[in-house]
Amino acid sequence: MALSLWALLTGLSLRRSSRQARGQADRLADLLQSAPAIPMLVRSDGRIEAPDRLANWLGRTTVPAFLSELVSEEGGLEPEHSRSLAAEVKAAQRGGRSFVLPIRARGSSRTLLVRGGPAGPDLASPGTIVLWIFDATESQSQIEELRKRVGDYREALEALSGVIEAAPMPVWHRGADQRLSLVNSAYVRSVDGESAQQVIEQGIELVEAVDGLSPSASAARAADANAPTARMVPVTIDGERRLMRVVDVPLGPVGVAGYAIDMQELEEARAELRHLVQANRDMLDRLSAGVVQFGSNHLLQFCNQPFLSIFGLSPEMATADTHFDRVLDAMRDAGLVPETADFPAWRKEKGEWFQSPNAREEHWRLRDGVHMRVYAQPLPDGGLLLIFEDRTEHVQLSSARDTLLRVRTATLDNLFEAIAVFAADGRLHLWNSRFRQIWAVQEVLLATHPRVDELMSALADRLARPQQSSLVHQLIRAATVERRQRGGRIAFADGRYFEFAAIPLPDGNALFVMLDISDSRRIEQALRDRNEALEDADRVKTAFVSNMSYELRTPLTSIAGFAEMMQSGYAGELTPQAREYVDAIIASTMRLARLIDNVLDLTQGAAGGLPIERKPVEVEPLVTGLAAAFEEKAQARGVTIALALRPNLGTIVGDERRIRQAVEHVVDNAVRFVQDGGRVLIHGEGTHKSVRIIVSDDGPGIESRLQARLFDSFARFGRNAAGETTGLGLPLVRQFVESHGGSVSLVSEPGQGTIVTIELPRGE
């Protein structure tokens, strides 16, 4: 009983332990089923023990029973991977070593990672291999990507190293301790080093310390600031001092990279550009055209003085912060932009000049007839250059030139003369319609601008003597080549006669002028005959007047003598009325005697027989006596005679009677024709060569159309208040004065009076 009870209790305990072991085994089996790796045992005889889900990873329906089946062609693995797995398993069984091998199932993108090694003695018999198979598809793709990325980085690093090495400028790298760790060939050449290793080992710096700041200290400052730094420092390369821009770029924990750019040529170019810009602006300031430049931001950068003067802008408006629109507004306020109904739209349109691919040119017509030429040139940097040129004078000159050309053409076509202009090479350049009509030539022939020899050869049959056609050619050649003016006459076959001349022009051409003298030749003889007849008639008239004057003097003397006898009472005492009649007879005979004397003087002067004495004559007593003689006559009408005689009158050599008559006639006319209460001024002055006597009055004056006839014989040009007219006075004055070698002139304006000037030479 006791033994049975022990056995029962022991069985129950074992049963309970068995149940616990089975539960733990089931849990471990479930854990293995959910594990990311699948275990597999390969016995020494090649048998395989593995979970069923391995078949799914291998693309099979069941798990192979032996290793030979797994590595065979039907095993589910790639052939190469099958062979590798078999070799690794055999090597592990023989040598007891572990291995890791990636394999791939056939026809699948899944990658399996196999980790194998000998199994423990508690797990299996000796020679058994435990394989853990992991699904490494995702990990393997990441590994492949990382490998590719590492390869790309390696290639990029090699390319970057090649670029740095091939860079023409010095490039270097400093470690965390700011010591050189990498330099390129340009750096080595710049410091005259033998190799990069030698430069790094000796720590040869490219630049020296500037203002107490060494290159390593500058790199440390850039690393501390974690920002690139740049500075301009002088560097000596190949014995030449050059300006370089040294840049330090922090790279974090790996150090600081640096490079140096040679700025010497750039700085020289900048300095030259500054000088060029300044010289260009100085030159623009001296231009007459207004120039203004705007930047890409539409702000004014430069304008010259003519621009400010043309548009009347203040210097404040020319500052660099003035916008393009504000400049247009100021120009509009000055009235120097075209009138437009919508100025904002016009201003916006002009703003498009900045984006225009080509230059623009406009012509603005402003107020007061001002013409402005505007040239807008877009600049490569997005700016705009504007040039304003005042073309007013040019437009006016162009208009005047066009008008002048039209007037010249109309004038030449309407001239009576034939006009032709031949160029320096002898070709016909210009002609008028009269030239074409005279020569009876077609316009088509003239339009070909023939040479003068060809033209005259074609027109030779128009001449009375065709050989004279060469004369025109010779004259044109003399005017164009020898620059001499020549002329001549030519006869046409139809009886016409022409006078022509070839005149050299300033531009090297020759002007050929033809004048029709056919009528003048016909009337020339008639005029000559008529002139001879007129001369004969004048001589007959002069003789007749002279004879009649002498014939009239005898009865006139008798009349005057008998009248004086009656006035003296030889015929008895006269009644008052009879005495008045006798006085009138005597006055008329005296007046008629003077008239006859004047006629005789005129006829003798015209015939050249006027007797002139040459004796010294005191001018001042002569003029004073004449003024006194007219005093009574002047006072009767309330006329004032004023004398203004200078002491330098002196004497002249001449005929005192004729001089007295000349001055007397002038004073007599002045007293007779001045209004009652008027004034007559007699002014006298002299020089060492001549004496001038001026008689002026404030009378009614003389019309200009009559002044040309004042000195003609028997001209009647004025009438005084008593109805008297002038007759032979002024012609006698001119004759008497000119016979002494002097001159007489008259100046008069209606309502302004008259001035008569007698100038007589001193004589010998």
Can you walk me through this structure?
21% of the residues are buried. 46% of the residues lie in helices and 22% in strands. It has 764 residues and is of the alpha+beta class. The strands form six sheets. Strands 2-1-5-4-3 form a five-stranded antiparallel sheet, sandwiched between helices. A hairpin with a 2-residue loop joins strand 8 (229-237) and strand 9 (240-250). The protein is built from 24 helices and 27 strands. The N and C termini lie far apart (209 Å). The longest helix has 51 residues, at 518-568. The radius of gyration is 67 Å and the shape is rod-shaped.
Largest sheet at a glance? 5 strands, antiparallel
Q: How many separate helices?
A: 24
SS strand fraction: 15-25%
The average pLDDT is: 80
Please give the number of β-strands: 27
The low-pLDDT segments are: 716-727
Helical/strand content category: alpha+beta
Integer-rounded radius of gyration: 67 Å
Fraction of helical residues: 40-55%
Shape: rod-shaped
Q: Termini separation (Å)?
A: 209 Å
| Order of strands in the sheet with most strands | 2-1-5-4-3
